[in-house]
Automatic annotation (TrEMBL):
Segments traversing the membrane: 83-104, 242-261, 273-292
Pfam family, any one: T2SSF
Record key words, sorted: Cell membrane, Membrane, Transmembrane, Transmembrane helix
Cellular component GO terms held in the UniProt record: plasma membrane
Membrane topology recorded in Swiss-Prot or TrEMBL: Multi-pass membrane protein
Protein name: Tight adherence protein B
All residue ranges annotated as the Type II secretion system protein GspF domain in the record: 133-255
Compartments reported by the entry: Cell membrane
Length: 302
């Protein structure tokens, strides 16, 4: 039991460490943007805002820079595993929670990356439509591009701000707009900008209509987004069924505990329970991996 309590304290401290570091990063960002008066004020020492957090963040930052560590919500698995370990009187849930942190972090970052790519694709389609509208209103292509970038919020977009500045500079100061568009198209989800670059190059060299080409790109991106959303809606029911089936063992543990049994104790403190836990965990992982592969195949073939 002493080992469980010690590991629980270590995991809780690690979770608090990471959360304080993340809070300090947000505080610094707000200070740079001028939106947090308390961040611009003087520190109150070790216990004040920015005191203990600054020191913890200073300890963690070298590891992030050197090893590329990036912890987020997955760190909550540490106290979660510690609570289960304390309830069951076993070190195993604490170790499993710690081992699951990098896997959960990879899954969460993959979700964030895919969501950001979809937002970029939507922004590219909106930009094409906005530039085409300005061209038909009589604006020159560079002025139309610069104005549309500002109206669509690309300089403030967290996933497109790095591409917006070169595009704005090229449009306003006579730079190589197609090259800037191709460079921005390397961002995941912004591949449609390569088509914009081709249309821009053809319009400049051959005098073809740029607005019509941009309209076609916007329509194609919109159709692709609609197809993706339709496929996601069709896969929502199978995904919900898989999630429910995956949670059934947890419901069984809760039911057994409510009936007066000790399922956690049997699973974590007896050889037969540990064997059943290992076999069940492998089968659970295999089922989830198989289902995820089926879903990825369906999405890739759409």
């Amino acid at each position: 039991m002493n080992a469980v309590v010690l590991l629980t304290a270590v995991c809780a401290g690690a979770a608090a460490w990471v959360m304080c570091a993340r809070g300090e990063v947000l505080r610094r960002a707000r200070a740079l943007l001028g939106g947090a008066p308390e961040a611009r004020g003087a520190s109150w020492g070790l216990l004040g805002p920015g005191g203990l957090e600054n020191r913890l963040n200073g300890l963690l930052e070298p590891f992030r820079v050197r090893f590329g560590w990036r912890l987020g919500r997955e760190v909550l698995l540490l106290p979660g595993g510690s609570v289960v370990g304390l309830a069951a009187g076993s070190v195993l849930p604490v170790l499993l929670g710690a081992a699951a942190v990098p896997l959960a972090g990879r899954w969460l970052r993959g979700r964030e990356r895919r969501a950001e790519a979809e937002r970029r694709a939507v922004a590219v389609g909106a930009l094409c439509a906005a530039v085409a509208g300005d061209l038909r209103a009589g604006l020159a292509p560079p002025a139309a591009l610069a104005g549309a970038l500002g109206r669509e919020g690309w300089p403030e977009h967290p996933g497109l701000s790095s591409a917006a500045l070169p595009l704005l500079a090229a449009a306003r100061f006579g730079g190589d707009v197609p090259a800037a568009l191709r460079a921005a198209a390397r961002l995941e989800g912004a591949e449609g900008l390569s088509g914009v670059a081709a249309c821009w190059q053809v319009a400049v060299d051959g005098g073809a209509g740029l607005a019509d080409g941009l309209d076609r790109i916007a329509v194609a991106l919109r159709a692709e987004r609609d197809q993706r959303e339709d496929l996601r809606a069709q896969l929502a029911a199978p995904r919900s069924t898989v999630a429910l089936l995956a949670l059934l063992p947890v419901f069984g543990l809760v039911l057994g505990t409510g009936l007066g049994a000790d399922p956690l104790g049997v699973l974590l403190r007896t050889p037969a329970g540990l064997g059943a836990l290992a076999a069940g965990g492998l089968l659970e992982w295999a089922g989830l991996a198989w289902t995820a592969r089926i879903v990825r195949t369906a999405e890739g073939g759409s």
